[in-house]
Design brief:
heterodimer, A: 411 residues, alpha+beta, 8-stranded antiparallel beta sheet, two-stranded antiparallel ribbon, disordered N terminus, B: 380 residues, 10 strands, creatine kinase (chain A), kinase (chain A)
C-alpha cells in the first residue's frame, strides 16, 4: 500500500527511466509539483469523482468500474501521469455505436505497469484475448517472409507497411513536455541524417517549411497536419503544435518517418505495385538501422517481452504494424462471402482514404487486422498470402466461376 | 482538448529548452512572457497544483490574430493571480488600461446609484442586457477542476437557485438529461449554450468531461439566466426587450445579491479581493466581469467617419448582434462597456446608459441631415 497513496506516506522518488522495471511514485519527491495534478480531487470520494460513462461505448468505459477507479485514482507514474489522464479521451469521446474506440492512452512506458489493472483487460478485449502472461514475438528479419514479390500489379496498385516507435526515456505525446519533444526531434534528426544509399533523405520541420516544400509534401501525400480528431486532441497530443514536429523522407520517396505526431516516430515504407517483399525489406532494414542509431545514443525503443513495442494507443501494441495494399476487387467485394473471407484470413478492409473512408471504383485497402500476439513477419505473411488468394478469387469471379472450393480455413 | 502540463520530467530540462516558441504569436501572454519570467515561475505551482505551463498552454496553442489581441492565458484557481503575479500583473496592466499592482478596484452593485437608464428610446434600442461571471471560493476553476469539484459547484448552484422566489422563481436544466423538447425551447429562447468549440477555450481544458456538471437555470419570466460550469463557475445574465436598462440592472443586482448570500451561508462565497475585484478564469474578465449592452439601430451613425472615435471616447465597444466577432445586421449593433477592471458596476452601466442616449440623439440628427459636430463627447 505504502508508495501508492498520495497522502501520508513518505518515500524517496526513484527515477531511472532507462531501466526495464516499472517505477511507482512515492510521496515526498524531489519534483516540486506534488503527486496529483489537481490535488483538490482527493478531497472528494471516489464516487464523486467517478466519470459518467452511461452513454459511452469504448473499451475503457466497458472495463472501468467504480471499484477499479477507487483503487487506481491515487496512483501515478514517476513522471506524474494519473488515471484521469489515461481516461480523459475516453470520457470526452463517448464513441460510436459501430466503431469500438479504445478510450485511453499511455503517457509513458510505466503507464502499462502502474495501471495494469485497467489496461490488461483493455488489451485483452482489444487484442483477441491476449493474456497478461502472454509473450509477444518480434521478428523483423525480412528473409523470413515467403514470397510477396509477385502480387499481380494489374490488381495490386500499391503496397505499404507502417509502424510506430517510442523512444525510451521520454514521455509519450499525450504527456511529454516541450523540452522532451524537442529532444526526441533532435535525436531523430541525428539518427536519420546518418542513413545512406537508398535511405539517404531529408528532414522537414513543420514549423519552418517553405510554401514550396509544403506543397510538394502535400502532392506526395506525405504531409500530416495538426490532429483534428477529438480522440487525439482530448488526450493532449496537439499541445504546442507545430513545435518539434516534422517529416523525413528518403530521396526516392519510398521511406518516410513522422516525428512527434501520434507517437514519437511513425515509420512508413511504400511503393506502387505489388512487390510487398521489397517494401517489407526496406521497412525492416530502415527500422533496424534507425534503432541501432538510437541505441548508440542510449535511447533504445520502448519494448518488452509481454507487450512488444510500447506505443501511445493500446491498440498499437505488439508490432504496431499495419501492412496493406490497395487492390482492385470489384467482383469479390460484392460477393456474399467477402466479409467472411476477410475474417478467416485475419484481414480488414478500408476505403483508399484510410480508416473510415469508402472504397472508390472497387479499390480497397486490405491490411492485417492483428497487432499483438503475432510477429511482423507473420502479419505481413498473412497479407501476402491473403491478398494473393483474394486476387485469385477475383479472377475466378471475373470468369463467372465459383470460389467455393478455394475458401480458406480460419487462420 | 485537454491540457496536460504536470509532467515532472520537464524539470530535467533547462528553462531555455522548455521555453515555448512564441515567434509567430500575437497575444498578451506572448508579449509579456520572457525567458527570465518563465525561468523564475516554472518550478512553482499553486496549492492545487496548477503550473505556469497550465496558465499559458492556451496562448501557446493559439497564436492569435493580427487584429484581435487575445489574452493567451487563464487561471486555474484563485491563487494563480498571486503565485504567478510576475506574469499576470503585466498582462493585467496591458489589458486593463495600465491598471497597477497597487491599484484598488471598487465594487458597487447598488442599482439605486444608477442615474436614468429607464428611458432609452425603444424605437432604436431593441433590447438591453447585463452579464457577469462569478467564481465560487473553495473550488478550482474550469481549466483545472476535477469532476467532483464541478459537480460540487453544480449541486450548490442548484440549491441556491432553487431557493429563489417571486420574480426569481425558476428552473434548472442540466445539460446531461435535457429532453428534446426542453432543448428546442432553450435554443429558441437563445438560452442554450453548447460545448465550446473555440480552441481558445478547449486548449485551456475547459471542455473536459462535457456535459457532466453543466446546466442552465432561468426564471419563469425568462429575464434572468444563470449558466453553470461553462467558461466560469457561474455566468449571470439579466435581459429584456426594449430600452429599460435601469430595470435590467436592478434585476441583475438584486438577483446577484440574493444568490451570493445563499452561497455565503454554505461557506462558499464568491472569489473577490480588493485589488482584482471578482476573480474569474480569464484575466480579461477581472474586476466587475460585467458587460452591459444594448442592441441599437444606428444605420447612419455607424457609417459616419467619427463613429469609432465616439465609441472610444465614450469607453464603449461595438459588436455584431451575434456577439463578439460577428458582423452587424441591418445597421443594428451591440454596444457595450469596454472596461471591466478599475471602475465599478454602476460606473460601467452608467457609461452605457449615457453613451447610448447620446448616440441615439446623434442618429436622430443624422436622419434629419443635421451635423453632429457639436455633440462629439470628451474622452471619458
Amino acid at each position: 500500500m505504502g508508495g501508492e497513496t498520495l497522502l501520508g506516506t513518505i518515500g524517496i522518488f526513484v527515477s531511472t527511466p532507462d531501466s526495464n522495471s516499472p517505477q511507482i511514485r512515492q510521496q515526498g519527491s524531489a519534483m516540486p509539483f506534488g503527486n496529483t495534478h489537481n490535488k483538490a480531487k482527493m478531497n472528494y470520494d471516489s464516487d464523486q469523482e467517478y466519470p459518467d460513462l452511461s452513454k459511452h461505448n469504448n473499451h475503457m468505459a466497458k472495463i472501468l468500474t467504480p471499484a477499479m477507479y477507487e483503487r487506481l485514482r491515487s496512483k501515478e507514474t514517476p513522471s506524474g501521469f494519473t488515471l484521469d489522464d489515461i481516461i480523459q479521451t475516453g470520457i470526452d469521446n463517448p464513441g460510436h455505436p459501430f466503431i469500438m474506440t479504445v478510450g485511453c492512452v499511455a503517457g509513458d512506458e510505466e503507464t502499462y505497469e502502474v495501471f495494469k489493472e485497467l489496461l490488461d483487460p483493455v488489451i485483452e478485449d482489444r487484442h483477441g484475448g491476449y493474456k497478461p502472461s502472454d509473450k509477444h514475438k518480434t521478428d523483423i528479419d525480412p528473409a523470413n517472409l515467403k514470397g510477396g514479390d509477385d502480387l499481380d500489379p494489374d490488381y495490386v496498385l500499391s503496397s505499404r507497411v507502417r509502424t510506430g516507435r517510442s523512444v525510451r526515456g521520454f514521455c509519450l505525446p499525450p504527456h511529454c513536455s516541450r523540452g522532451e519533444r524537442r529532444a526526441v526531434e533532435k535525436l531523430s534528426i541525428e539518427a536519420l541524417a546518418s542513413l545512406t544509399g537508398d535511405l539517404n533523405g531529408k528532414y522537414y520541420a513543420l514549423k519552418n517549411m517553405t510554401d514550396a516544400e509544403q506543397q510538394q509534401l502535400i502532392d506526395d501525400h506525405f504531409l500530416f497536419d495538426k490532429p483534428v480528431s477529438p480522440l487525439l486532441l482530448a488526450s493532449g497530443m496537439g499541445r504546442d503544435w507545430p513545435d518539434a514536429r516534422g517529416i523525413w523522407h528518403n530521396d526516392n520517396k519510398t521511406f518516410l518517418v513522422w516525428v512527434n505526431e501520434e507517437d514519437h516516430l511513425r515509420v512508413i515504407s511504400m511503393q506502387k505495385g505489388g512487390n510487398m517483399k521489397e517494401v517489407f525489406n526496406r521497412f525492416c532494414t530502415g527500422l533496424t538501422k534507425i534503432e541501432t542509431l538510437f541505441k548508440e545514443r542510449n535511447h533504445a525503443f520502448m519494448w518488452n517481452e509481454h507487450l512488444g513495442y510500447v506505443l501511445t494507443c493500446p491498440s498499437n501494441l505488439g508490432t504496431g504494424l499495419r501492412a496493406g495494399v490497395h487492390v482492385k476487387l470489384p467482383n469479390m467485394s460484392k460477393n456474399a462471402k467477402f466479409e467472411d473471407v476477410l475474417k478467416k484470413l485475419r484481414l480488414q478492409k478500408r476505403g483508399t482514404g484510410g480508416v473510415d473512408t469508402a472504397a472508390v471504383g472497387g479499390v480497397f485497402d486490405i491490411s492485417n487486422a492483428d497487432r499483438l500476439g503475432f510477429s511482423e513477419v507473420e502479419l505481413v505473411q498473412m497479407v501476402v498470402d491473403g491478398v494473393k488468394l483474394l486476387v485469385d478469387m477475383e479472377k475466378k469471379l471475373e470468369k463467372g466461376q465459383s470460389i467455393d472450393d478455394i475458401m480458406p480455413a480460419q487462420k | 482538448m485537454a491540457k496536460n502540463c504536470h509532467n515532472d520530467y520537464k524539470m530535467k530540462f533547462t528553462g531555455e529548452e522548455e521555453f515555448p516558441d512564441l515567434s509567430l504569436h500575437n497575444n498578451h501572454m506572448a508579449k509579456v512572457l520572457t525567458k527570465e519570467i518563465y525561468g523564475k515561475l516554472r518550478g512553482k505551482s499553486t496549492p492545487s497544483g496548477f503550473t505556469v505551463d497550465d496558465v499559458i498552454q492556451t496562448g501557446v496553442d493559439n497564436p492569435g490574430h493580427p487584429f484581435i489581441m487575445t489574452v493567451g492565458c487563464v487561471a486555474g484557481d484563485e491563487e494563480c493571480y498571486e503565485v504567478f503575479k510576475d506574469l499576470l500583473d503585466p498582462i493585467i496592466s496591458d489589458r486593463h488600461g495600465g491598471y497597477k499592482p497597487t491599484d484598488k478596484h471598487k465594487t458597487d452593485l447598488n442599482f439605486e446609484n444608477l442615474k436614468g437608464g429607464d428611458d432609452l428610446d425603444p424605437n432604436y434600442v431593441l433590447s438591453s442586457r447585463v452579464r457577469t461571471g462569478r467564481s465560487i471560493k473553495g473550488f478550482t476553476l474550469p481549466p483545472h477542476n476535477s469532476r467532483g469539484e464541478r459537480r460540487g459547484i453544480e449541486k450548490l448552484s442548484i440549491e441556491a437557485l432553487a431557493s429563489l422566489d417571486g420574480e426569481f422563481k425558476g428552473k434548472y436544466y442540466p445539460l446531461n438529461g435535457m429532453t428534446d423538447a426542453e432543448q428546442d425551447l432553450l435554443i429558441n429562447d437563445h438560452f442554450l449554450f453548447d460545448k465550446p468549440v473555440s480552441p481558445l477555450l478547449t486548449c485551456a481544458g475547459m471542455a473536459r468531461d462535457w456535459p457532466d456538471g453543466r446546466g442552465i437555470w432561468h426564471n419563469d419570466n425568462k429575464t434572468f439566466l444563470v449558466w453553470v460550469n461553462e467558461e466560469d463557475h457561474l455566468r449571470v445574465i439579466s435581459m429584456q426587450l426594449g430600452g429599460n436598462m435601469k430595470e435590467v440592472f436592478r434585476r441583475f443586482c438584486v438577483g446577484l445579491k440574493k444568490i451570493e448570500e445563499i452561497f455565503k451561508k454554505h461557506n462558499h462565497g464568491f472569489s473577490w479581493n480588493e485589488h482584482l475585484g471578482y476573480i474569474l478564469t480569464c484575466p480579461s474578465n477581472l474586476g466587475t466581469g460585467l458587460r452591459g449592452g444594448v442592441h441599437v439601430k444606428l444605420p447612419k451613425l455607424s457609417t459616419h467617419a467619427k463613429f469609432e472615435e465616439i465609441l472610444t471616447r465614450l469607453r464603449l465597444q461595438k459588436r455584431g448582434t451575434g456577439g463578439v466577432d460577428t458582423a452587424s445586421v441591418g445597421g443594428v449593433f451591440d454596444i457595450s462597456n469596454a472596461d471591466r477592471l478599475g471602475s465599478s458596476e454602476v460606473d460601467q452601466v452608467q457609461l452605457v446608459v449615457d453613451g447610448v442616449k447620446l448616440m441615439v440623439e446623434m442618429e436622430k440628427k443624422l436622419e434629419k441631415n443635421e451635423s453632429i459636430d457639436g455633440m462629439i463627447p470628451a474622452q471619458k
